[in-house]
Amino acid sequence: MRSALGHDDGPLASQLRHRIDGAPTAEALWFLRGDVMLCLAQRLGERAAREQIRALDRVFQGRYPEFWGSQPPEPSAVRMH
After folding, report:
1. Full-prediction pTM beyond 0.85?
2. Are the C-beta atoms of 33 and 53 separated by less than 8 Å?
């Protein structure tokens, strides 16, 4: 996720890096995808942002198949900082 943000030094990207670093679980990272999408869309446009998010989705699909689907998992164990 950090690499998807690239060298963006804007305030949203900086905040997201902090949240990514502090994410306690893979599930918490899954929930940050929407915020990463927003940040990328502002910088790259929606089409390019969607392509990057699809690449992130493949990472989750391969390692965490329970996260794959149209809806994110229930936030039962998500603890955000």
Report:
1. no
2. yes
Asked whether 20 and 29 are in contact (CB, 8 A), the reply is: yes
Neighbours of 6 (CB within 10 A): 13
Phi, psi of 40 (to 5 degrees): -65, -40
In tens, the pLDDT along 13-51 reads 999 999 999 999 888 898 899 999 999 999 999 999 999
In the numeric block, the tokens 């927003």 are attached to 38
Residue 77 carries which side chain, given as an amino acid letter? A
**Which residue from 24, 21, 19 is spatially nearest to 35, judged by alpha carbons?**
19
